[in-house]
Amino acid sequence: MGKIEKISVALPDDLVADVNAAVEQGDYATASEVVQEALRDWKHKRNVEALDIDGLRCLVQEGIDSGASLDAKSVFARLRSKYALKKPIQE
To answer: Is 0.90 surpassed by the pTM of this model?
Structure first.
């Protein structure tokens, strides 16, 4: 990770409670980690929204070029057959 800069952010009470609850429940070590993940998600959402039609066409073509697709029915049939032979887990 690069340089870290401390900033101050004002949040409404309900969001502060959510952040604190996430830390108290052990989902995150600090409030900063909660905010950092939220900002990474926000940044990802903005990047996805910024894709233009040409960008989407390129992604679709990349998927097509990656190889032949598989028929879902045959894939699921093969998986059902494979896992039907396995013994159930004893509790």
So the answer is: no
Distance, CA of 30 to CA of 22 (rounded, Å): 9
Decide if 19 contacts 32 (C-beta within 8 A): no
- Answer whether 32's CB lies under 8 Å from 44's CB: no
The whole-angstrom separation of Cα 84 and Cα 91 is 18
CB 26 within 8 Å of CB 18: no
C-alpha–C-alpha distance, residues 38 and 47, integer Å:
14
**Residue 88, pLDDT above cutoff 70:** no
Question: What's the rounded Cα separation, in Å, for the pair 40 and 78?
Answer: 38
37 C-beta neighbours (distance < 10 Å), count: 13
Span 34-53, pLDDT tens digits: 999 999 999 999 888 888 88
**How many C-beta neighbours within 10 Å does residue 19 have?**
19
